[in-house]
Amino acid sequence: MGSSLDFGWLGEAFAAIARGAGITILMILVSALLGIILSVLGAAARRSRQAPLRYAVTAYVELIRNTPFIVQMFFIFFGLPTVGILLNPLAVAILAVTINLTAYGIEIVGAGLDAVSRGQKEAGLALGLRPRQVFVKIVLPQALKVIFPALSSQIVIMMLESAAVSQIAVKELTYEADLIQARTFLPFETYLVVALIYLVLSIALRRLLQFGGRRYLFGGLA
Amino acid sequence: MIEFTFWDIARNLMLAARWTVLLSIVAFIGGGLVGLAILIARIDRRKWLSRPAEWYIGLFQGTPLLLQLFLVFFGLPRIGLRIDPWLTAVLGLTLCASAFLAEIWRGGVEALPRGQWEASASLGLHYWRQLRLIVLPQVLSMTRAPTVGFLVQLVKSTALTSIIGFEELLRTANAINNATFQPFTVYGFVALIFFVICFPLTRYVDALEKRRA
């Protein structure tokens, strides 16, 4: 049994790993941005007065939360071409990640909206603001501040889960690892290095979200 | 070419789902037992025990499960074992589950008032009996909602073992899809089976959380 590890291939593989990590980061940042916007819209829709809209959002959330991400992705990836829609793998991946992230995001943002006391809304209305202004300027910022840590965690979890998109040939970090190990015949070493890169990425992403959230989102809100 | 009727697809998928359920149960029990050991190390006052447990948890929570499965899969031959999808799936999911469960339960231990430890110490119980009779029962009951919530995650995670060649629901679905080219039917049915398993558990978690609130 070979117990010594061989890392001689690292120099050569560096460019491929960096490229893959770049795609992974790009994918999660785009999906996170879209996901947060859609989550806010979804959470608002879930509290609307239209019952069908509320039910539709709830059905969407429960359907996504109770099925595996990779099944959702295969459903989209293999399904869309049969109805004549051809997307490249990266677009499918971003779509699937966004759809998944949004379902959890709606739950999280909804919890944040519940946490803002009714008095805030009533005070806003009493000041003569329109309901939409009250939501956007008073309730939502406070809700986001409360739930931002939970939202950040979910984004990090989603980045780790996005390793599965290597299965539809998106050229991200795990896909590059698959290629490298096929060339070097050193699968254990390759996946070990790439797993540690994911670890660093997840710590860095968490820091970035914390810092960015504090600095840009809640700047005027102590 | 063999014709697949809808019934053929449904029957094959439901048969494959048995492996998904079995793997979920085995990994949940295994993860619970290993997780308990990790928890005990994690809450120990001695740093040389709690630090490694903390790293263990951070390592499994900070890396993708797919790569953990790859590492177990290709790691088996290095410790002199044969490559085996079932063993990889059980071992990989057990290790991952143990880290998540240990962290969930640690939250419960932190939330437990210190008085519980002090009271049980003043009754003359030594550390292990405090843990077994007073602390753990309360922690497990307090954390039931997140524990069952994690079980839902675990059931969904079993789908990833299809990639390392374990013949569960998704792997069977891929084979059927390759033969029938009916992705919406095949993957839709797979999603439905996962939903039927997970949704009652999710409702249970919601009910537990509501009761507590």
TrEMBL record, chain A:
InterPro entries: AA_ABC_transptr_permease_3TM, ArtM/GltK/GlnP/TcyL/YhdX-like, MetI-like, MetI-like_sf. Residues 21-209 form the ABC transmembrane type-1 domain. It is found in: Cell inner membrane; Cell membrane. It is a multi-pass membrane protein. Keywords: Cell membrane, Membrane, Transmembrane, Transmembrane helix, Transport. PROSITE patterns: ABC_TM1 (PS50928). The chain crosses the membrane at residues 20-45, 66-87, 93-113, 146-170, 190-209. NCBIfam families: HEQRo_perm_3TM. Belongs to the binding-protein-dependent transport system permease family. HisMQ subfamily. This is Amino acid ABC transporter permease.
UniProtKB/TrEMBL annotation, chain B:
Its main location: membrane. It is found in: Cell inner membrane; Cell membrane. SUPFAM superfamilies: MetI-like. InterPro entries: AA_ABC_transptr_permease_3TM, ArtM/GltK/GlnP/TcyL/YhdX-like, MetI-like, MetI-like_sf. It is a multi-pass membrane protein. It holds the Pfam family BPD_transp_1. Keywords: Cell membrane, Membrane, Transmembrane, Transmembrane helix, Transport. The chain crosses the membrane at residues 20-41, 53-74, 86-105, 186-205. The keyword Transmembrane helix applies. Residues 17-205 form the ABC transmembrane type-1 domain. Belongs to the binding-protein-dependent transport system permease family. HisMQ subfamily. This is Amino acid ABC transporter permease. It comes from Labrys neptuniae.
